[in-house]
Amino acid sequence: MDIYLIKLILAHLIGDFFLQPNSWVKDKERKKLKSGKLYMHIAVHVALIFLVFLSFGVWKIALSIGVLHFIIDAGKSLFQTKKNARLLFFIDQIFHVSSIVLVWHFFYKGYLDISFVNDIKTWVLIAGILFLTMPTSIIMKVIIAKWLPESDDDSPKSLQNAGKYIGILERTLIFVFIITNHFEAVGFLLAAKSIFRFGDLKEAHDLKLTEYVLIGTLLSFGIAIVVALGVVGWVS
């Protein structure tokens, strides 16, 4: 990747995540375009461009980044509500990164090599990862549904859909560990999950719950390992 693009992205990361206090974010959400913190935030980004390049000769780039950043942040502040705040955060970052790439391409004639999009290995990897998310969650739910322990009103309540997302994350990690040839990390992950689960199972005093958790864990790990090994065999 081009060093100029890396510097621009670095400046963005520092400006948006390190040098933007939460008080500034709240002030922008509350006052919208009247927030002085919005303009201070833009000034920080412009200053960071000069800093990472150690030159004032990049003023056109800094100005372009500043204007685009202001437009994106202004749009976000005008349309953001409590319901869409999480979604707009990710959209906002996508727009910021896209604008940085656009400025980099315009001033430095840079281009991103996306030839990997037409490589069958890329699509096999994507298919493998996607299969280990929602499809595997649904398959596991169907398989172990008949062993689901009866709920206890006195038992502590878990976060909504937490189990599903934990399963997706663990299978994704297993997939990454195996395709990068770090099989030892799979054992570490299994051990770590066992430690965290040990307290719950110890307190439960319920053999059915223990067996249910073991079935779910081993099934999740087993599917992830089989899929990852299949993908490795395909792309190698």
TrEMBL record:
Pfam families, per database record: DUF3307
InterPro entries: Phage_phiKZ_Orf197
UniProt keywords, alphabetically: Membrane, Transmembrane, Transmembrane helix
Domain of life: Bacteria
Transmembrane segments: 38-59, 87-108, 120-148, 168-191, 212-235
Name listed for the protein in its UniProt record: DUF3307 domain-containing protein
Species this chain originates from: Pedobacter jamesrossensis
